[in-house]
Amino acid sequence: MFFETKNYNNLSSSAPLVIYLVPSKALATEVESNLSRVLKRTTNNNVIVTGLYGGTDWGPTDVWMTSDKPTVLICTYEKAEALMKFLGTLFIRRVSLIVLDEAHLVKFDGIKESLQKSENRSLRLESLGARLFTYVEKNHCRIIALSAVASETESALANWIENRTNASPAKTDYRSTRQLIGRLECKTEKEFEIRYDLLDGKRLEFQEVGQFNTPFIPTPFPPYPSAPTKWTGPEKRLRPYLFWAAIHLAAPDDKGQRRAVLISVTQQISGYAEDFLQLLNSTWAEVEKPSFFQQPIILELNNIPIKLLAFIFNTDCLAGILLLESKNVKIWRKCLRSCVDYFGIESYEFKLLKKGIIVHHGKMPGLMARLLIDAIDERIVHLVLSTSTLSEGVNLPFETVLIPSLRRSKGCLNIHQFSNLVGRAGRPGFGTEGRSLVLLNNQSTDWSSKQARNRYFSLINELENQLQNSHQNINPPSPLAELLLLLEEKWSLISSSGSQDEFFKWLEKTAPLDPGNNLSDAQVLAIETLDSLDSILLSAIVEIEQIEAKDFSTNELEEQLQKIWQRSFAYYASQEQERLANLFIKRGMALKTEIYRDSSQRRRLYRTSLPPRSGNQLLNLYFDSGFKEQLAKGEDYATWTPEQRFNYIQTVVNNLSTLLKFKPTNLPNKTSVNEVLLWWLDSKSASQKPAIKKIPDWYKCITQDFIYKFNWGLGSIIALAIDEAFGGELVELSLENWSQTGLPWIVFWMKELIIWGTLEPVAAYLLAKVEDVTTREQAEELAKTYYQYISEREAEPNEYLNAVNIRNWAEQSFPLERPLPTPKPPNQMNVNLLRDFTIAPTKTWTVVPVEVGNEIQWFDLAGFPLGICQKPKNWQSDFLNTYDFILDAENRVVSSKVYV
User: Fold this and answer.
1) Which of 217, 228, 249, 834 is the most buried (most CB within 10 A)?
2) Which neighbouring-strand residues pair with 401?
3) Residue 307 above 50 pLDDT?
4) Helix (H/G/I), strand (E/B), else coil: 857
């Protein structure tokens, strides 16, 4: 994974860096957790695993990144862009490996408006990849792309990643668990039937009396009890079926094994949560229900002899049991405390969590989301109600995925979204198969129910055809190519011309910052699209100049832009790549020679992380409106009252909100920016608070308008301050040189205040860094101890918030616990063979463990059971993540071996 990079710019000898790129914060959280567990065990903590995910900004959490050890950095595409802008060559020179997860997302999603507005995530990924792949070639960096649903794009993807034509992807159709896809048919009289249609992408059917039919389970659960008669509408009527099936599927089977169930909803999760709670608390309160949840408890060991406990738990080593119990109780209590803090004791989220049902959505705070994922991963809770946040590549242990609707707010699930969703079912080490069931009304003849059934079978046909046609070489659409084509289309509308020469002339002279007055709507759209392309090209030009530390001649720039184009996905996926390359390079050269001739202007526009027109507006705000002076007023923040603190932050938020790019657009009805912000930062003082049903809407505003938009703008302001302070020189921002920016320490902390929902910087740090601090009230109370400590050592209020002081105090007050002994599986386990190996070509087989009650079945990589044994004492399910297992059929033993 790590090797010493070729340090071509001789800036430093920092340790190598692995960049792991993911599309979502939920996936970043899971990858960070898994890699931390594996690498820290197997490398004796000599590898740092850290996640800098979320947002196009750069802030204090990001500054903590360690550089004196090999580091695995998990980040979203947006955060990787921020790395490029803030650290440039200081970051690029360390990269020895890039892993691009969910790589199929580089394929254009068809939303042209997002291309025009420079908001398309596929375009961001392609632009980032093209530039990053070009820059790290001098490091001899390796690049790996991962995808489970890239059958239509695999050839173009392989060529892009390998940087050559006719590259062959390394692929396998093998799944360690079987994948069943079918229907949960909701019949009259509250009854159920399960019908399966696909097994590992292939049709399941049998012929009976001249008709084709599919395998089915006639009565998987008893009929559901009564439900509210007021529940009308095609999807609402199916909710009693959904919830009754879910609690039965999550209950222990006849061997005592619990199965994890994901209810994946595409919209209106609050409505589902409210209905589920009503059924459990009211309608079904007296109904006998299966036991789908058992709350973790602390074992009371006082005055109980160890030998007796060992006898009770049938083990010679009680430490493993106690460790597991205490770990799960700790996670569970953290989840409850955090949920009360952020959602309140009357919320649907908290009330369902207490009953063992997790509600997980992208509108919840990051700490809450991470704790809930821990509860799922440790199998404390087995029933999850979630939006798409857990369907984008996240590998959590769900045996069953229930899909109540195939509709989304703007249409229906497409084949890639559906493939990703059903891919969440089944996980190695927890079972031999995963199944996804779509709820369909068996009897209804209304239009909506018919549409749902037709859409389901259409998706089934597409999945089946994908497998059959996976060998075909299809040219997938590139977002960069589509942007260039869209620009040409917009120009044609305003020019009424099809002349390529005239288009080139327009590209070479049009300046978006000064387009003239009285523009038509069509001209505005053309300028906006051109500005989107310019943001990519300006990034490339500034980064090239930084890396090579020189001003390029026209010919040299053309050569560099050609290299970047040849590392774009468009180069390998587009049928018109030569013509589009000409457009790309022509406009890039015009930016430097005609449109943005001043290198300082180019650099500052690039620092804003915005398209040039929006970036220019931010420059005007920063330099001409007194914004810097307003920020400087925060030097005494540490000694202010909560009201003074809020007023300061509110002023900064409102100033940034004057720019269209950072203007809040998700405010709940009849609320203002200040009301939502006060509720989030200082709930005790807020007069306006959301109703129970509206809490997710308020969190949507917090997540999208403040944590994303405002922090993006704040990060851009900090970037401009750094650029100004160091005269355009690229300097790695550290805690020690922050004061040179001329900004007070509170600006350093403001991003964290917005993320954690507090007015107290020390509390924000504790929530981010100290594992046992899980509520804002707890963190704010502990912060008082810090101020007593620091007031005896510092005289200036601004120095109270010096991050070095806060870090040193926290490390003294909350030392890291010593690592516990790492549990290991037995070196050898005796097994009973389930196959005749007398004529087998080999006697040794790689096998994987599947727990079934108190036994372990050993399966080969094709999914066949080869052996069985009793589960060893202290066995842990995650041994599969850190050990290889080899069956020696001749001696009837399975041996274990650590792998990295």
Assistant:
1) 249
2) 262, 436
3) no
4) strand
How far apart CA 65 and CA 48 sit, in angstroms, is: 9
Q: What is the pLDDT of residues 530-545, one digit of tens each?
A: 999 999 999 999 999 9
Q: How many CB atoms lie within 10 A of CB 805?
A: 19
Residue 20 neighbours by CB under 8 Å, 6+ apart = 31, 35, 72, 73, 74, 75, 99, 101
* pLDDT in the model for residue 303: 46
Query: Strands, E, within 685-843: which ranges?
Result: 828-830, 832-833
Q: How far apart, in whole angstroms, are the C-alpha atoms of residue 84 and residue 128?
A: 9
> Are residues 273 and 355 in contact, defined by beta-carbon separation less than 8 angstroms?
no
In this prediction the pTM is: 0.81
Rg (CA), the chain: 29
CB 146 within 8 A of CB 100: yes
The bridge status of strand 828-830 relative to strand 893-898 is: antiparallel
CA dist 438 and 715 (Å) reads: 43
Sign of the CA dihedral running 89, 90, 93, 98: negative
> Environment class of residue 33 by beta-carbon count within 10 Å: exposed (0-12), middle (13-18) or buried (19+)?
middle
Give pLDDT tens digits for 494-515.
998 888 899 999 999 999 998 7
CB 96 within 8 A of CB 589: no
Scanning 496-520, the segments in alpha helix (DSSP H) are 500-509
State pLDDT tens for residues 887-899: 999 999 999 987 6
Residues sharing a CB contact under 8 Å with residue 543, sequence separation 6 or more, in sequence order: 84, 88, 131, 135, 606
Which helix H or strand E contains 51, and what residues bound it?
strand 48-51
pLDDT confidence bin for 468, thresholds 50/70/90? low
Note whether 494 and 523 are within 8 A (CB): yes
As separate numbers, helices (DSSP H) first and strands (DSSP E) second, the chain gives 34, 25
State both tokens at 730. 């690229």
Q: How far apart are the first and last CA of the chain?
A: 9
Question: What pLDDT is stored for residue 785 in this prediction?
Answer: 95
Residue burial 828-842, b: 16+ Cβ < 10 Å; e: rest: ebebeeeeebeeeee
Q: CA 862, CA 869: separation in Å to the nearest integer?
A: 20
483 vs 206: CA distance, rounded Å? 48
SS3 272: helix
Q: Measuring CA to CA, how many Å separate 240 from each of 229, 244, 284, 437?
A: 11, 6, 10, 15
Amino acid at 392: E
Looking at residues 398-420, what average pLDDT do you find? Answer: 84
- 55 and 711 in contact (C-beta within 8 Å)? yes
Pairing mode, strands 407-408 and 855-860? unpaired
Segments of 567-683 assigned E as strands: none
d(CA 632, CA 42): 47
Q: Closest Cα to residue 620, out of 632, 608, 631, 630? A: 608
Tokens standing for 313?
Answer: 């738990």
Query: How far is Cα 174 from Cα 862, in angstroms, rounded to an integer?
Result: 7
Question: What count of Cα atoms within 13 Å lies in the side-chain half-sphere of residue 457?
Answer: 8
Q: What angle do CA 594, 600, 606 make, to 5 degrees?
A: 85
CB atoms inside a 10 Å sphere around CB 783: 18
Residue 354: C-alpha distances to residues 293, 296, 337 (Å): 10, 11, 11
| Of 166, 136, 162, 198, nearest in space to 7 by CA | 136
